[in-house]
Structure formats: C-alpha cells, structure tokens
Amino acid sequence: MILDAPHFNCQTATMKDSDLYSNPVSVNEAVEQLNNASVVALPTETVYGLAGLANSDDAVFKIFETKGRPRFNPLIVHCANLQIARSIAQFDALAEQVADAFWPGPLTLVLLKTANAELSDLVTAGLDSVAIRLPKHPIAREILSQLSSPVAAPSANPSGKLSPTTALHVIDGFDGRVPVVDGGHCDAGIESTILAIIDGQITMLRPGTITKKMVENAVGQPVGDPQDEKIVAPGMLKSHYAPNASVRLAATSLKSGEALLAFGPVAESLQTDGAVTLNLSVAGDLAEAAKNLFQFLRQLDAQNPTAIAVMPIPNEGIGIAINDRLERAAADRTS
Ligand code: TXA
Ligand code: MG
C-alpha cells in the first residue's frame, strides 16, 4: 500500500542496514516495542505520531531525542478512553461537554493535571497543565486499548519539519530508524485543534479541522485567542512546518524557478507554463486542501524549486488552520 505514494524520496536517505526496522510493523509488534519503552510511529486521524509510554521516563526521553525536540516543549498524551483521561487531567463541566461533543477525534484539550497523574515529568515539561486527546483512528485506538499506560505522541517528524501524513513520510524523516504502523494517508492531514480550558474560559491555542465556530456552537460560549503568554502552546514557534525551499504566500504571479501550490481554479494570469504545480483542491474544498497540504509541500520541495509560491487560501473555517501552518512554513527561519 505504501509503495504507490508518488515522489517518495527514501532512496536519497543515507542509512545503514543495521539501523533499519522492517517497516511497516504490525499492531502487535508496535505494542511489544512500546511495552519495551521503545518509540513507534502510529497513524492518527490528524498526522502520524511518534509514540512512547507516557509513564516511562526512558520512552519519553527517546521521543525528545529522536525528534531533536527542545525539552521545554510538552507532549500530547493520547488516551484509550475518557476514564483514563480523567485520571490524568481535571475535567470541569465545560471540559466534559467539549469532550462529549468531539472525542474521539482531532481535538486536544489542555487542562490542569491531576495530583496523582501517572506521567513522566518530561511529558509536561514542568507545567501544571497537560495536553490530552482521544484519537479516533482505529489503529491508534487498537494499540492504546492494549497498553496499560497512555502514550505521549508528538507529530512523527524531526523537530521543525513538516508533519507526516503517510508512513513513508515518517520513514523518510527518520531515515528508517523508527518502526511505523502503516494506516494509509491521514484523514485530516493537519494536527489537532488545541483548546485550553482553564477557569471556565476556552482558548484556542492551535487551529485545526475542528473550528472555533464548531466549538462555540457545541458549548454556547465564545472561544478566545491566547492573550496570556503563559497559556500559549510552547511549541507554536514562529518558524515551524518548514520545507527546505522558502515559501511565498498569497502568490498572484509566478517567478522563474518557483513551484506553485494552487488552490481552486488557477487564474490564467499566473502563467504556470512549465512550473511544477500541485492543486490542494481544484474544487476549492478546504477539508481536501488540509488533507493534501503537507504531502504536496513535500512533493514540491523534492523538485528543488527556488521557492514554493502558494495561492491565497480563504481565511475561514479550516482555511484558518491551513493559513496558520503556511505562515509558519513561510516564517523567517533565522528568528
Ligand atoms: O494532531 C496532533 O495533535 C498530533 C497527533 C500525533 O496527535 N500531535 C501533535 O503533537 O501535533 P505536537 O507535539 O507536534 O504538538 C503539540 C502541541 C505543541 O505545540 C505543544 O507545545 C502543545 O501541543 N502543548 C502540549 N502540552 C501543552 C500544555 N500543557 N500547554 C500548552 N500547550 C501544550
Ligand atoms: Mg509537531
């Protein structure tokens, strides 16, 4: 199934045979490896996650090492069910309402940690809050149901790079050194929406396919933007999700050597003759565009363009999350 993914770049990776896992691995092999405090990449409905047992210092340390992730950036804890989530985080009535509306699904809640949460301290990077999620993907759920601890799982990419939406992206990103369970192409294609629910207030820390409007409709109260530095997700660094090529946003013309990431009908004035072009959604469907976003950025990047020019994406609904990721991909990388 994974070999038909187009433009995959594995051959260029330098790897020693002894480093390679026989990818992909089965659900049972994944459970075994996780129980040995190893890391395994798993599919979720958003992106692939690099999982390790959340109660194991060794496993969580390996996640940070494998990704090259700064230790101050806490991880999301993935739980098999709500009962386990409640043992880790404090759910007030509002959090219960949001969980009931959107779990299992592509939503992460940042809540205060419980006093006796069985988590490695590395997971929360010293914060008194914890990020948790109940994924919907059947493979992730099957693996979680077989483990005695939830798993911590950031996106399964080297820190600062594009999130993986296929098993091959994971193999490519870590040069085959991480075992992966193949669940095909992730449905949502971008990372989960993150909401902090603290003191009866809901704040959206990261936009995703579950939009502000959807949450407001479900709970009947406004969802704010982060004002207070303290509750901004520490991982929301300005430059993130970066391909190798620079990214030029809101392109209405194309410069020589640029590749085009299109959306909807392409205006003739763009003069795409000869330029490598991929269209996120010819029909202008934002959910389809989100699903294709990281895969298409990778494919265009593999052509070594002078830059990736991106057509404007409507800043509404899921388009807000797409623009968030694109702005980070385009951000100044020296800052
Ligand atoms: O869709 C997803 O959320 C994927 C899949 C694998 O679940 N995971 C993911 O994890 O995107 P990661 O580590 O790439 O992004 C998690 C974000 C980071 O920006 C981190 O700073 C933030 O969540 N975060 C984690 N714990 C937090 C906390 N206690 N307070 C605020 N932000 C937190
Ligand atoms: Mg990430």
Note the main sheet.
9 strands, mixed
Question: What distance separates the N and C termini?
Answer: 40 Å
State the oligomer: single chain
Which CATH architecture of the largest domain? Alpha-Beta Complex
Helix/strand layout:
Blueprint: H1 27-35, E1 40-42, E2 49-53, H2 57-67, E3 76-78, H3 82-88, H4 93-102, E4 107-112, H5 121-124, E5 129-133, H6 138-145, E6 151-152, H7 167-173, E7 193-198, E8 201-206, H8 212-219, E9 223-224, E10 246-248, E11 259-262, E12 277-279, H9 286-301, E13 307-310, H10 318-330
Parallel strand pairs: 3-5, 4-7, 8-9, 10-13, 11-12, 11-13
Antiparallel strand pairs: 1-2, 2-6, 3-6, 4-5, 7-8
Write a structural description:
The strands form two sheets. The chain has a nine-stranded mixed beta sheet, sandwiched between helices. The protein has helices at residues 27-35, 57-67, 82-88, 93-102, 121-124, 138-145, 167-173, 212-219, 286-301, 318-330, and strands spanning 40-42, 49-53, 76-78, 107-112, 129-133, 151-152, 193-198, 201-206, 223-224, 246-248, 259-262, 277-279, 307-310. The chain has ten helices and 13 strands. It has two domains: 27-224, DHBP synthase (Alpha-Beta Complex); 247-330, 3-Layer(aba) Sandwich (Rossmann fold), CATH 3.40.50. Strand 7 and strand 8 (201-206) form a beta hairpin. Bound molecules: threonylcarbamoyladenylate and magnesium ion. Residues 154-155, 163 line the site of magnesium ion.
